[in-house]
């Protein structure tokens, strides 16, 4: 059987060797320079010739799917995997915006903060009816409830508690696995919040954002001109982790604040290592309006400092967006605004003109203008993605990107078509595999 070189392979220099990485299988093989030369010659002359010159390497590349049968539609394999993940009916993610009001006014926020926006008793009733409808779906096994905003903890007891009470009681009655999460600035966390969950034997996870270290953060998120929020938020992160609440610490970095971000690790690493291993993950994201300058090397230095301090970290250069696709890509997800309007994406504003549906009086999700099906079909219509070696990792961005590109009628690339940026993603993946292997070797010694 003739074979072909996989579309999803990348061959890159790595330390004193070369690394051949496949983004679909997420496997890597390290090659000596002469084997790299042999492979490159075979790529140009026909990979099956490799069988004649180096049979063991040829067989290994077939076994590990760096070489695939000639005529294999590798993009179709990615499509099948995407459908498997995004059409999964066993899980539902329901996100609620209790309010669009916020106690901070971050300069980069895309939302319009409405002071009078909050859930009414009628809206809470409709949401609870929706929860009841979802929970009895026969294929449903896991139900996740998330609170966004605005700042979802502003009116916690009046607006959020009634929904949580109904949610967990309904899930337990229907024998469904369930989870609760918040995307919050973390300033309003207190002992009363902890007590609420303790008394019900519940836990939730939280994403809490820091805008750099103290000096930079307090110029973005402040109570008033003389009072910042950094110290209170860091204290609240300690409180949560020490009480067994999982916290994803999202660090929003810019060219101005990244050099000082390593100091955040010093403020978090005094928590017991067993607790941070179990209940904390640090996640770095560049503020989307800040794109001047190449921060890759500096970011890696900061990440290494966090790791050296015993903290787990993630960053955008290590995507796995097929297996872990955006919530908005999934059929079984919805964002319900305080006014009953329904959206899919939380990274756009919640103006009524952008809504994709609504919750009716009976608690049913009503999708308008075929919006759900248009979104589910938006992927794989962007020509550059279909030829890209990163497709199984990048997934063409999210469905929101895909929809907006279709509306504009323009091809796009998450990495701007920059092959050097794609190489960085691959090198990050290779580094993670190498580090995991080294750790495993250490643990078995």
TrEMBL record:
NCBIfam families referenced in this protein's UniProt entry, alphabetically: rSAM_more_4Fe4S
GO molecular function annotation: iron-sulfur cluster binding; metal ion binding; oxidoreductase activity
Cofactor(s) required, per the database record: [4Fe-4S] cluster
Pfam families linked: Radical_SAM (PF04055)
Similarity remark: Belongs to the radical SAM superfamily. Anaerobic sulfatase-maturating enzyme family.
The name this protein goes by in its record: Radical SAM core domain-containing protein
Source organism per UniProt: Thermoflavifilum thermophilum
Keywords noted in UniProt: Iron, Iron-sulfur, Metal-binding, S-adenosyl-L-methionine
InterPro entries xrefs: 4Fe4S-binding_SPASM_dom (IPR023885), Aldolase_TIM (IPR013785), rSAM (IPR007197), rSAM_sf (IPR058240), Sulphatase_maturase_rSAM (IPR023867)
The Radical SAM core domain, residue ranges: 86-309
């Amino acid at each position: 059987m003739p074979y072909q070189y996989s579309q999803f392979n990348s061959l890159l220099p790595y330390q004193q060797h070369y690394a051949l990485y496949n983004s679909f299988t997420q496997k890597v093989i390290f090659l000596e320079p002469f084997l790299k030369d042999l492979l490159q010659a075979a790529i140009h002359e026909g990979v099956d010739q490799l069988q004649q010159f180096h049979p063991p390497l040829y067989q290994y590349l077939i076994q590990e799917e760096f070489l695939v049968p000639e005529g294999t539609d590798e993009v179709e394999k990615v499509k099948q995997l995407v459908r498997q993940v995004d059409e999964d009916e066993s899980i539902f993610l329901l996100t609620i915006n209790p309010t669009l009001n916020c106690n901070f006014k971050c300069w980069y926020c895309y939302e319009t903060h409405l002071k009078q926006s909050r859930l009414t008793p009628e809206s809470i009733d409709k949401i609870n009816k929706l929860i009841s409808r979802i929970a009895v779906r026969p294929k449903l096994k896991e139900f996740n409830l998330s609170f966004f905003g605005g700042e979802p903890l502003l009116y916690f007891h009046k607006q959020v508690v009634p929904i949580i009470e109904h949610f967990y009681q309904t899930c337990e009655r229907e024998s469904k696995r369930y989870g609760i999460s918040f995307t919050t600035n973390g300033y309003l966390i207190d002992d009363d919040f902890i007590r609420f969950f303790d008394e019900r034997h519940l836990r939730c996870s939280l994403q809490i954002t820091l805008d750099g270290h103290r000096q930079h953060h307090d110029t973005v998120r402040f109570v008033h001109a003389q009072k910042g929020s950094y110290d209170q938020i860091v204290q609240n992160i300690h409180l949560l982790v020490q009480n067994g609440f999982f916290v994803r610490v999202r660090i929003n970095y810019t060219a101005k604040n990244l050099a000082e971000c390593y100091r955040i690790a010093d403020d978090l690493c005094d928590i017991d290592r067993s607790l941070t291993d179990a209940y904390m993950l640090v996640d770095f994201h560049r503020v989307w309006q800040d794109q001047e300058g190449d921060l890759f090397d500096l970011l890696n230095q900061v990440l290494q400092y966090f790791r050296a301090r015993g903290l787990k970290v993630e960053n955008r250069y290590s995507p796995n967006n097929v297996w872990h696709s955006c919530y908005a890509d999934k059929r079984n997800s919805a964002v319900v605004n305080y006014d009953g309007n329904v959206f899919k994406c939380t990274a756009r504003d919640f103006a009524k003109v952008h809504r994709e549906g609504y919750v009716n009086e009976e608690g049913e999700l009503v999708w308008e203008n075929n919006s759900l099906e248009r979104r589910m079909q938006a992927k794989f219509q962007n020509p550059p993605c279909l030829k890209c070696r990163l497709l199984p990792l990048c997934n063409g961005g999210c469905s929101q990107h895909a929809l907006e590109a279709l509306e504009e009628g323009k091809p796009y690339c998450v990495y701007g078509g920059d092959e050097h940026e794609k190489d960085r993603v691959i090198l990050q993946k290779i580094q993670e595999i190498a580090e995991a292997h080294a750790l495993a070797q250490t643990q078995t010694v």
